[in-house]
Write a structure and sequence with these properties.
The protein is of the alpha+beta class and about 170 residues long. Among the domains are: about 60 residues, no CATH class; about 50 residues, Arc Repressor Mutant, subunit A (Orthogonal Bundle). About 35% of the residues lie in helices and about 20% in strands. It is built from five helices and seven strands; from the N terminus they run E-E-E-H-H-H-E-E-H-H-E-E. The protein has a four-stranded antiparallel sheet with strand order 5-4-7-6. The longest helix has 15 residues. It is flat. It starts with a strand and ends with a strand.
Length: about 170
């Protein structure tokens, strides 16, 4: 069974300067952020990956990033993906140029969007942490009502996650 964790790096004065999420030996690998000695790394362990992401988000929100007036070196707001990441103007231009080359033909793009809307607008039935069944008109509605990011709802529906914050998919 995998163990997920959220870790905090502290400096010599025990001021936090980086929060991350990991599994295995990730917190001890060298990276762009200077790694402190083991005794200045605090670990919070979780059974579910989503719980470690939530903890990471909460800790970053609590101490805040340097660009937001806080003390952390984190570039993002935490969680799956990279929310809060701000690219430089040069990087944005390069990415825009790259995306122009990847544009689909209009008919292919239209079909892709229709399939996505169709898939995401179907009703979804979930079981709450206390065992009650709840029916939502769409994945987005479930996301908004439960306060769970739409990406995590999609991962639940697609079978990547078995449950999120105690909510799980019904068999029917």
């Amino acid at each position: 069974m995998k163990t997920y964790y959220t870790y905090v790096y502290y400096d010599e004065n025990w001021c936090p300067y980086y929060v991350g999420k990991g599994e295995g030996r990730r917190s001890f690998r060298l990276r762009s952020v200077p790694r402190p000695p083991r005794e200045r790394i605090q670990m919070f362990y979780f059974v579910h990956e989503w719980a470690s992401y939530e903890c990471e988000i909460q800790l970053i929100n609590f101490w805040r990033r340097r660009c937001d007036g806080g003390c952390l070196m984190n570039l993002t707001l935490g969680g799956a993906g990279a929310p809060g990441m701000k690219h430089s103007d040069e990087t944005r231009k390069r990415m825009s140029k790259s995306h122009l080359r990847l544009k689909h033909k209009p008919d292919v793009e239209k079909r892709r969007i229709e399939r996505c809307k169709e898939r995401c607008s179907k009703p979804i039935s979930l079981i709450s942490p206390d065992g009650k069944k709840a029916l939502f008109p769409s994945r987005r509605a479930a996301s908004q009502d439960l306060g769970i990011h739409i990406t995590n709802i999609n991962r639940l529906v697609n079978g990547k996650y078995k449950q999120i914050k105690g909510w799980r998919l019904t068999n029917a």
